[in-house]
Input
Amino acid sequence: MNSYDQIIKDIKNKVYSPVYFLQGEESYYIDKISDYIEAHVLSDAEKEFNQTIVYGKDVDVLSLISIAKRYPMMSNYQVVLVKEAQDIRNLISKGDKDPFIEYIQQPLASTILVLCYKYDELDKRTRFAKAIAKHALIFTTPKIYDNQIPEWVNQYVLSQAFRINPRAAALIGEYLGKDLSKIVNELDKLMLNLKKGDEINVSHVEEFIGISKDYNIFELQAALGKKNVLKANRIANYFSANRKNNSIVVTIPQLYSYFSKVLSYHALQREHADNKTIASELGVNPYFIKDYEIAAKAYPSHQVIKIVGYLREYDLKSKGVDSSADEGELLKELVFKILH
Output
């Protein structure tokens, strides 16, 4: 499988593929490769006549083939970048003769055609996908899971010559989700306010990204884990009053994940697993194991099972199943049941 690093290395060394097919649910690396090709393959003078950027919704297959078959002017290459290639009309032909497959099988050596097929992957069973796999350079963005975001944030920050506190990395992941482009944009803005080598902490995240350090899902989990009734209710009230950024529809799955891990912690403890093994099994940074240890002491297994049941119940209620209650009130009820 072609990796992002290898593709960029080859481009730097002027080793090009006539057809790049960049696909996957996560658009960040697709954009990075496409942007790098756009910026570095041709000189500024060459770009004027030899670089074409089109969007899938604005082009059909025959028009695209016609563009790809042009010869460069006063340059060794022409670059054709197709943004949102998934929107190309009739990209995958159902007929016996497919002119695009014919082009992919014998592409013009002087054309670098880049297809950015976002948010999805080709059906590998189709003739088009088989032709791409055999004759083009195909890159599939690695699927990233929620529990991998904090480590991804950590690695990105290190690559920019900064450091980040594990709780700050986890907080960014929880609030910005899996949109890597959005995460990078926010981190880049934050790092403009710090010096190289500085450690990003929760206070920086609050100040420069706008995530409250006192009223967030981690603080709610910590308050519930410690059975801190006053603080948990205070955060629940804040969430109820600020629903735009603290919707119960988002909060409940996060609490469900948290208490599911507390339940798993109990099981792993019974197996006498060490902290490193527990962290690996839970998919969390070892930094957070202490939080689960505290919660496990506060809630025996049978009580955690009951809490998981409450979370399922209130998840349905928050979606209007057997309930018309205001979501703020539902959250307060849920927090009360968890604590008592």
